[in-house]
Specification:
Largest sheet: 4 strands, antiparallel
Radius of gyration: 21 Å
Strand order of the largest sheet: 1-2-3-4
Shape: globular
Structural class: alpha+beta
Helix content: 10-25%
Distance between the termini: 54 Å
Number of domains: 1
Oligomer: single chain
Length: 257
C-alpha cells in the first residue's frame, strides 16, 4: 500500500513538472513552419540576394516570415505586437493630444483602422522601442532586437549603397505602392511596404508613398535617427536615414540577435 501511494505521489510530481515547463515556455519565441513564403518570378529582374529563413512568432502569436540578407537575418514583415516580449501591454493611443504627450511607449493602427494590421503591421513611437523610456523592455520577439542605425547601414552597404538599396527592398508592382514605384525589384526579399506614419501631432500621412522604419539610435533628447525610408519614386527612391521626432509613429522590423 505504501509503495502504491509513493507511486501516485511520484506520478503527480512528474505531471506537475511537465505542466509547469509548458507554461514557462508558452511565450518564448519559436520557429514555425512557413506556409506562405511567396514564389516570386525574378526571371526578368535578376537573382535574389536574400534567402528566406525560418518563420518566427511574437508574444501575441503573430507569425512572421524572415529573410537572411548577407550576415543579417531580418523580419520580412512589419511588427504587429501589442505587447513587449515579457507580456507587458504597450499603450494603444488613439487620441491625438495623448499621442503628442506620450513619452513611455505607444502604438496605433494607421488611421486607427484595424484592417491595416494584417498587411502593414502597427505604427510605434520611438519611446516604445527605447529601453530607457519603456522600462528596459524589448518590443521584438525573444531572440530578436530593434536594429540600430549602424545595423541598417550594414544592410544598406550589402545591397549596394543607399542610392539603390531601397529598390532592392521594395515590394514589386503598384498593388500596394503608389505608381510608379520606381526601381523596385525586391531582390533582397525584404518586401518593404508603404505603411506611412503617424506624425508627432497625431496625423496620419504618406500611406502608399512611403515606408518608414525606426532604428534604436538616439539623435538628441527629442529626436531619433530613422532606420530607413523608401518611397514610390519621386527621384529619391533610394534608402536613407535622417532624424525625426521621437513622437512619430513608424513601422518596425526586428533583426535577429
Amino acid at each position: 500500500m505504501k509503495n502504491l501511494v509513493y507511486l501516485f505521489v511520484v506520478l503527480g510530481l512528474l505531471i506537475s513538472c511537465k505542466k509547469e515547463t509548458t507554461n514557462n515556455n508558452i511565450n518564448n519565441t519559436s520557429t514555425v513552419t512557413c506556409v506562405d513564403n511567396p514564389n516570386i518570378n525574378f526571371t526578368s529582374i535578376g537573382t535574389p540576394v536574400g534567402k528566406f529563413s525560418d518563420c518566427i512568432k511574437d508574444i501575441d502569436g503573430n507569425t512572421y516570415k524572415t529573410v537572411t540578407i548577407g550576415s543579417q537575418t531580418w523580419m520580412a514583415e512589419n511588427l504587429k505586437t501589442s505587447k513587449y516580449n515579457d507580456g507587458t501591454t504597450i499603450s494603444n493611443i488613439i487620441d491625438n493630444t495623448k499621442w503628442l504627450k506620450d513619452t513611455s511607449g505607444a502604438w496605433c493602427y494607421y488611421k486607427n483602422d484595424t484592417s491595416y494590421n494584417s498587411k502593414y503591421g502597427k505604427l510605434y513611437n520611438w519611446y516604445a522601442v527605447n529601453k530607457t523610456s519603456n522600462g528596459f523592455k524589448n518590443v521584438c520577439p525573444i531572440g530578436w532586437h530593434m536594429p540600430s542605425y549602424s545595423e541598417w547601414t550594414i544592410l544598406t552597404d550589402y545591397l549596394g549603397g543607399e542610392k539603390i538599396a531601397g529598390g532592392k527592398m521594395k515590394e514589386l508592382g503598384t498593388t500596394n505602392w503608389n505608381s510608379p514605384n520606381k526601381d523596385a525589384s525586391n531582390l533582397s526579399l525584404f518586401t518593404g511596404l508603404p505603411g506611412g506614419c503617424r506624425n508627432d501631432v497625431g496625423n496620419y500621412v504618406s500611406f502608399g508613398n512611403y515606408g518608414l522604419w525606426h532604428s534604436s539610435t538616439e539623435h538628441s533628447t527629442i529626436s531619433a535617427i530613422k532606420g530607413c525610408y523608401m518611397n514610390s519614386g519621386d527621384g529619391t527612391s533610394g534608402f536613407g536615414g535622417g532624424f525625426s521626432s521621437k513622437r512619430i509613429g513608424y513601422s518596425i522590423r526586428c533583426i535577429k540577435d
